[in-house]
Amino acid sequence: MGALPIKKANRMSAKASLGWLSVAWLLCAACGFDSSGPNSQQPAAGSSSTGAGTSSTMAGSPATGGGGNGSSAGAGAMSGSTDGGSVAQGGTAGSGGESVGGTGGVTAGGTAGNGGNDMFVAGGPPAFSAKPLSVVAYSPYRDGQAPGGAQPTEAQVKEDLMMLKPYVDGVRVYGTDGANAYIPKLCDDLGIDLHIGAWIDGIASDEPNVHALAAIVNANHPSIKTAIVGNEVLARSAKNGMTEEKLLALINIFKADFKATGVKIAAADTYPQWMMGRPNLAAAVDVVIWHTYGWWSGINVEGAYKLVSGRYNDMLAKYPGKPLILGETGWPSQVDHMSMDMTTTAVGNEANQAQFYREALAGMRARNLPMWMFSSIDEKWKGTSGEGEVGAHWGIWDSARQPKQAATEIMALVK
């Protein structure tokens, strides 16, 4: 991807907005939200493999159309069907992933078959607890640190997890090596749920990483709830040559090692990849994890939640009866993204990031649909990882661990 236009946003006020708090307190009454309760990433060449596996995380090169969260160029465009509007998501080289196609429109309503936008309420147990957030992506690297380079200390990782604990039920991590090795025991000690992945990328470390994940899960850490084999690996297929058959083989390797109880096995990929129809992959796992972002689609923040919600309807219709988790969505605090037809700008700034979090958290809580947010803390190394400068700005805390507007508003909900 060429250089993206960058609009350096001034630091937004730390004070939580009255509108957000009003929404939050309405949710307290309507959804049982007790605010007083206690409680990407894309290395250029894949793995920085150590004996335990790789700490490489998320998303392929935008030059292949993989983008931060889109499907690979080789996968072709995939049209969103309901509230998501006329969105062609395969993208082309340099699009950064999910791109707005055609008119770039977001249609309202939805189809009669799924009840329309924000109408479908999933059954089953509550998807959210008393915590403001459910699960957030976490990667431990601080300024001057990176996968395969300088690593955080255990004390630094603990400091991060203690910072997040009042606001989250759990964290999602993408690898098992380096500083990631501290996370399972720390989550055990702190009472934080852990959803842990093996990084695979069509490279030699794939199988060792899968074995490493199984070894960690088999150690019976009470914090581990989900084992995720790969992340957006099919979305990067034009770059890494991965196929569904190869991914299924790695899942079967994991299953052969797997001895734990109470841990769900999952596969995670982008909305376009799942919407192609992958019944064999869905059947091979306990949980389908899917990702989508309004920002990568070039959608203005005002329509971003509607887009995401409509795509949830699409996934529910595509995989009826299968447990689904929206495993990544969010909004960056810096950088503007021009859509492919150059008519729409998704503006990254703190106010827009906070707006998306308010609307998405309120909307998905009301629908009782599980949603994990990306991401918790900025990481400067991601700005040069292949995703572009935006990669460094998805956290709701900055890399110095200072809260941005979205985090400040979330923090205000916990008394």
Q: Mind explaining what this structure looks like?
A:
- With 415 residues, the chain is an alpha/beta fold.
- Helices cover 28% and strands 11% of the residues.
- It is built from 11 helices and 10 strands.
- The protein has helices at 18-31, 154-164, 183-190, 206-218, 237-240, 244-257, 271-275, 279-284, 301-318, 350-367, 405-411; strands spanning 135-137, 170-173, 193-198, 224-229, 264-270, 287-291, 324-328, 336-338, 345-347, 372-373.
- An 8-stranded parallel sheet has the order 7-6-5-4-3-2-1-10. Strands 8-9 form a two-stranded antiparallel sheet.
- Helix 4 (206-218) links the parallel strand 3 (193-198) and strand 4 (224-229).
- The radius of gyration is 19 Å and the shape is globular.
- Residues 1-119 have low confidence and may be disordered.
Form type: globular
Taken in chain order, the helices and strands follow as HEHEHEHEHHEHHEHEEEHEH
Largest sheet: 8 strands, parallel
Mean pLDDT, all residues: 77
List descriptors.
415 residues; alpha/beta; eight-stranded parallel β-sheet; two-stranded antiparallel ribbon; globular
Which helices and strands, and how do they pair?
Layout: H1 18-31, E1 135-137, H2 154-164, E2 170-173, H3 183-190, E3 193-198, H4 206-218, E4 224-229, H5 237-240, H6 244-257, E5 264-270, H7 271-275, H8 279-284, E6 287-291, H9 301-318, E7 324-328, E8 336-338, E9 345-347, H10 350-367, E10 372-373, H11 405-411
Parallel strand pairs: 1-2, 1-10, 2-3, 3-4, 4-5, 5-6, 6-7
Antiparallel strand pairs: 8-9
Helix pairs in contact: 1-10, 2-3, 4-6, 9-10, 10-11
